[in-house]
């Protein structure tokens, strides 16, 4: 998702080696969530391991090993709030969504719908960032954004 910027990379920063690696996604049912990500989004399971009563796995998108979801499954005391409206979801603090860049937003949404995925925001244009966006949710109320450069 390149943006034109006049700000050059800060190679002298003590944090210059920082780069995105993975996002941890906490769910109440590991096996169901892993199956959902693999069947609905074509994720691949790269590695699985236990941690006490929890099950964990690294999952990667169909052709990208540079950003992973670390799936953490086990009983939850505080499940995520359900959102049917993107605007209302912006009233919560903390992590909001995972965004995936796609080449063709319309085709991606059609495929998600054919797989029974819940779409909560149909495509809309954000001119300030030159992107068309849409949002969907998983069964555990985690939000996902799709972004297509226009």
UniProtKB/TrEMBL annotation:
Keyword Metal-binding: yes
InterPro entries noted in UniProt: Glyas_Bleomycin-R_OHBP_Dase (IPR029068), Glyas_Fos-R_dOase_dom (IPR004360), MMCE/EMCE_epimerase (IPR051785), VOC_core (IPR037523)
MF annotations from Gene Ontology: metal ion binding; methylmalonyl-CoA epimerase activity
GO terms, biological process: L-methylmalonyl-CoA metabolic process
Residue span(s) of domain VOC: 19-149
Pfam families given in the database record: Glyoxalase
Record's keyword annotation contains Metal-binding: yes
Entry keywords, A to Z: Metal-binding
Protein name: VOC domain-containing protein
